[in-house]
Amino acid sequence: MEDEHHYFVLNLGHDGQRITSIDSTARRTPWTSCPQAASQLQAFIGQPLRQRIAVNLPEIDSKQQCTHQYDLLMVALAQARQPGRREYLAKVIGAMHEYRHAELWLDDEKLLDWRLRGTVIHSQDEFDQQDLRSIMPWAEQTLDDRKLEALYVQRRAVMVAASKGVDLDRIPNAGVAMRARAGACFVFQPGRAERAIRVLGNTREDVQGPEDLLAGWQEPVVRV
């Protein structure tokens, strides 16, 4: 998974039924402490593979995980039960307080095409007028497996895209942003955020299209 701020590679081992091993590599992160969250993924060993993506796992505290590694693993849990290769591409134009355009493709098939004001969806599908901050209980009850997974991927892409236009190099450490982000993930925990130093220059400014992300990578991947 790669976007302008992050690049993670996740390898999941399984016996056909359950996870047996997890290895995560953080190739690019916004904060120095992000790679340390890889150890938290070991809590997933023994988890069953799933046909339907799990929106939540009550036995695992997602706030103590790196959000992006956690999300990638949740998709991998479902992918492991399916043959072949799948590739998601999410494209979000506009910063948080703009009227944004969000699109999602799976293997060149467009699945979602939204406009958003804040986190409220304007679309021609069943997601119209849903708020991404409160959508998941409705989605779990309403959507089939394919659409639920598409929503899961696109929701995170939209949330990550909220940082477009923010110069993270002006924020010396994650503790400075605690008022807005406290408790959100592994890094943004009290006592940990202040030690998470900004990795200067780690935001890519040269991404013009999907071909610029995960260049040369040949394994099953997610572009965001």
Main attributes of the structure:
21% strand, two-stranded antiparallel sheet, alpha+beta, 4 helices, 224 residues
List the helices and strands and how they pair.
Layout: E1 7-14, E2 19-28, H1 67-79, E3 88-93, E4 99-106, E5 109-117, E6 120-122, H2 136-142, H3 145-161, H4 178-181, E7 222-223
Parallel strand pairs: 3-7
Antiparallel strand pairs: 1-2, 3-4, 4-5, 5-6
Provide the structure class. Answer: alpha+beta
Helix percent reads: 10-25%
Average of the residue pLDDT scores: 91
Looking at the structure, what is the overall shape? globular
Count of runs of 4 or more consecutive helical residues: 4
How far is it from the N-terminal to the C-terminal residue, by CA? 7 Å
Which blocks of ≥5 consecutive residues have pLDDT under 50? none
Largest sheet: number of strands, sense, barrel closure? 5 strands, mixed
Total beta strands: 7
Radius of gyration over C-alpha positions, nearest whole angstrom: 17 Å
Description:
This protein has 224 residues and is an alpha+beta fold. The chain has four helices and seven strands; from the N terminus they run E-E-H-E-E-E-E-H-H-H-E. A hairpin with a 2-residue loop joins strand 4 (99-106) and strand 5. The longest helix has 17 residues, at 145-161.
Q: What would you say about this model in short?
A:
The N and C termini lie close together (7 Å). The longest helix is centred in the last third of the chain and has 17 residues, at 145-161.
